[in-house]
């Protein structure tokens, strides 16, 4: 599925937070601290999953803007199909 620029920026911001948490969890796993390691890795995976699959109130303006732009601005493909 194609991503819009706002979705890509949102994913990048989430990964900036999730990657260090995941690495911290991996360090705990390597040291043998399974509970703490799995908890931190789970938090990192959860951050990314929530960002991908949960629609939050801050996502709604971006969704409305993308749909509006898609209807107002016609692409070259849609112009040639109408002729």
- Characterize the largest beta sheet: strand count, sense, and whether it forms a barrel: none
User: What is the average of the pLDDT values?
Assistant: 83
Percent in strands:
under 5%
**Secondary-structure element string:** HHHH
> Which structural class is indicated by helix and strand composition?
mainly alpha
What's the total number of strands? 0
Q: How many structural domains?
A: 1
**What general outline do the C-alpha atoms trace?**
elongated
Helix count equals 4
Radius of gyration over all CA atoms, rounded: 19 Å
Uncertain residue segments: none
Task: Tell me the distance between the termini.
Answer: 28 Å
- Helical coverage, percent range: over 70%
List the SSEs and their pairings.
Layout: H1 5-31, H2 34-53, H3 59-72, H4 76-82
Helix pairs in contact: 1-2
Observed structural traits:
single chain; 83 residues; mainly alpha; 4 helices; transmembrane; DUF7533; transmembrane helix
Explain how this protein is built.
The longest helix has 27 residues, at 5-31. It is elongated, with a radius of gyration of 19 Å. It has one domain. It is 82% helix and 0% strand. With 83 residues, it is an all-alpha fold. It is built from four helices and no strands.
């Amino acid at each position: 599925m194609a991503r819009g620029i706002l979705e890509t920026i949102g994913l990048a911001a989430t990964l900036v937070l999730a990657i260090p948490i995941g690495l911290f969890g991996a360090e705990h796993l390597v040291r043998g601290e399974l509970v703490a390691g799995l908890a931190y890795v789970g938090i990192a995976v959860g951050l990314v999953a929530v960002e991908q699959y949960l629609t939050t109130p801050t996502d709604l303006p971006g969704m409305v803007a993308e749909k509006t732009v898609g209807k107002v601005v016609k692409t070259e493909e849609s112009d040639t199909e109408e002729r």
